[in-house]
Amino acid sequence: MRTDDPWYDAVASGSDDHDAPPAATAATTALPPRGVPRPGAGEGGRTGDERPVESVGPGTSDAHAAVYLAVQRSEAFQQVRRRYRRFVTPVSVAFLTWYLAYLVTATAAPELMARPVAGVFNVAMAAGLAQFASTFLLTWAYARHARLRRDELALELRWETQDMTRAYSVAPTPRTALETMR
């Protein structure tokens, strides 16, 4: 398995020139993203030089879309998404239930929340601190789950996507998403 990350090795265009953008894209990289007005734009936010809808090269937008569609439909990508959902959904439901229980208890049973635990430290303070502790615990559990169950497969998908994108930048654009799988 590769351990380096392809997204940090090359600029988005696939060029190995890290110092300056390719000459064909120099004019478009200075413009803001499509739909975002430039500073000093007149009424309506238009200056007349907004970023064009098409990408830099002919067919590169279609090629990149075909690559990402093929990756999205791949079994490896679906596996990463399943693993993500299997962790996030129950943990989110559990945490929201715990948080809402704290709020409802604080509202509906103030005498319970005011009961002292130790000195002036009461049940409400203990539950509030437990909210913070559970947030940190869930953050740790999420990072651990991602590292052990998803990161390796996601990195392989990144490499595959990067390799496919580079291949299509020099090869003709496929006509269908099925052709990208061949």
From TrEMBL:
Transmembrane stretches, start-end: 87-109, 121-143
Keyword Endoplasmic reticulum attributed: no
Key words of the record: Membrane, Transmembrane, Transmembrane helix
InterPro entries (alphabetical): DUF485
Superkingdom assignment: Bacteria
Annotated stretches, region: Disordered: 1-59
Biased composition (Low complexity): 21-33
PANTHER family according to UniProt: INTEGRAL MEMBRANE PROTEIN-RELATED, MEMBRANE PROTEIN
Protein name: DUF485 domain-containing protein
The organism of origin for this protein: Streptomyces bathyalis
Taxonomic lineage: Bacteria, Bacillati, Actinomycetota, Actinomycetes, Kitasatosporales
